[in-house]
Amino acid sequence: MATKVSRQKSISYRAKDATHCPVCGHEYFREQLHSGGGRLIAGKLTAELRRLYEVSKKFGRVYPLAYPILTCPQCLYSSFQNDFEKVDPDEVQDLKKATVTRRTGIEKILGPLDFNEDRQLVLGAASYILAIDCYQKRGMNVAPTPKKALCAIRGAWLMADMNEQFSGMGFDKVQDLLYMKAVHYYGPVLDIMSTGREPHDQFVNLLGPDTDKNWGFDGVIYLNGYLTRKYLDRLASSDTDRIKILERCKMHLGKLYGMGRASSSKPTAIIDMSKDLYEDISKELEALQEKVGVAG
Helices marked H in 76-120 — which ranges? Predict the structure, then answer.
């Protein structure tokens, strides 16, 4: 009976096949989130395209974002699953040399960590910060820029949850830093989408930004506009530069929601949110243009 109850209450399970770390050679069994069974009760979609979940009476609060990144418990090498074992020899050397720096860096933020334990909020947040660092050392063949953008926004979300649970510990500052990283990564992702400088097939199925729905390139356009507007004052020091940045965002958003009615590929939600954002940016742009015109 005890075993049956334990299975009913389990949130995750360990894969039967071992995962081999290409950096340090360590083998471990990846943890994966169970699906169904009332573990995830979907709530509202936020303005950042994050899906919120209600607390389950049976399982408590579950963080599906804590599971997608693979992290070696020994050397803390981290990446999305498809990239984990596909590491070039020169990348292996760079990642291996940075092992101590990786551990000391993340532990300065979150304290001692043990990735042999089951995933929870702290390990989930840590996995994205570690993945950003590791993708800095990866080649263009794995499309590191879109993946760093995704890791940054997800890490910021989990850090917001951390700050809510453990206020006064400085996690809001880490959250803010990750948001700024996301802002700086999402802009180049727009260029990558048009130039193909990093292979689309390596990231198109991961764009999310959350795990419940992949909003694809539309989500990138919208989220870039949203984050750019949110952090505009940090991105540009002059009104002239702010105008240029907002004009670019407005152009992309106009193409997104101006292509026609909602469809299976462009649901009403993303069109409506993009239209609202477009209008907000237009008003802000008009105010800045008037200000510059008066100043001139």
Answer: 89-97, 99-110
Rounded Cα gap, residues 68 and 9, in angstroms: 21
Under 8 Å between Cβ of 105 and 115: no
Where do runs of H (alpha helix) occur along 166-267?
Answer: 171-195, 216-230, 232-235, 239-257
Contacts of 214-217 spanning 24+ positions with Cβ under 8 A: 215/49, 215/270, 217/193
Cα–Cα dist 189/177, whole Å: 19
The pair of three-digit structure tokens given for residue 142, joined into one six-digit string: 């794995």
**What are 108's two structure tokens?**
């300065």
How far is CA 88 from each of CA 68, 76, 94, 123, rounded to the nearest angstrom?
A: 22, 17, 10, 26
**Confidence at residue 242, expressed as pLDDT on a 0 to 100 scale:** 95
Mean pLDDT, each 10-residue run in order, the chain (296 residues): 45 93 96 82 93 87 95 98 95 97 96 95 98 97 97 98 93 97 95 93 95 93 96 94 94 77 63 92 94 65
pLDDT of residue 266: 62
Q: How far apart are CA 62 and CA 38, in angstroms?
A: 10
Asked whether the beta carbons of 129 and 109 are under 8 A apart, the reply is yes
Tokens 């949130």 identify what position? 11
